[in-house]
Description:
This protein has 327 residues and is α/β, with parallel strands linked by helices. The protein contains 12 helices and 9 strands.
Amino acid sequence: MREAKVTVIIPVYNVAGYIEKCATSLFEQTLDGLEILFIDDCSPDNSVEIIKKTLKKYPARNTLTRIIRMPSNSGLSAVRRCGIIEATGQYVIHCDGDDWVDPDLYEIMYNKAVKDNADVVVCGFVYENLKGNEICKNELHNIDGKSLLCSWYKSTCHMSTCNKLVRRSIYTKYDILPWVGLNMWEDNGLLTRVFYYAKTIAYANDCYYHYNRTNINAMTSGYGIKQVEQMISIAEHLTDFFESKPDAKDFDKTVKAFQFLAKINLVTDSFANLRRYNNTFKDSESIIHELDLNAFSAKGRFRFRMVKYHLGWLFVLMFKMKKFLYK
């Protein structure tokens, strides 16, 4: 078997309407030595059958392509965890089953990793919206991970695992795996720890990951209180992670940023949850005036400003009225 240069991990669950385009974009990659791992999370639709049918058109990909079935439906973090454990490539990256990639994406990213001896290589996103696309370059040029994390609170970067090629030895040497059961913000929890140990982060120009924002069933398209509680749990785990390090003080503001960004999602249409917000990560309030606005979506910025000026109660009231009017 050829040694894998890159392993790409694809969670498979209810993506029958998208997986053929995703799989085709992976099978047509220009990089040789590309290991492709589809992790079937007991998908109830025919996603796996579509993958198998598509693979038949690309016999050269048979050697390094595997479909691994989870023993039971386990959620995104467990699927990513399985993929990282099974990976054999020098580098590892993730791809969601409803997205797709440029045909030379992984070749460009891998070559950049080798050229710069980088632990992490980042590429840009193309947000595929119903009304057209939007390019987000999110450039990070030859910076070490600790420097990135020290200033993350005032200069945030997208924390998706799908546009970041990671040296596999970072995962294995430091025993970094997703926290099982925490499927919302699992990428924040994973990559923050990766960045802590990454000596060099490089950026690959002119290649893109296509992020599908038309799938209304995607996890990121909407979430409720259980998902917010998972975000808070991720922030708690990250707090513990940094507190265990000798240089913990260097990351104090970034830790507070994660805490605040998690708990602000409690501010919706419930005064009970507003009280929970007020009693969660109380010290994180100190970061509000230094926090990068780019950490929020356009809608999220309005809520942030309301909270910043102690008008959370008004935001909750407005949210309640909006829900009532649009019933």
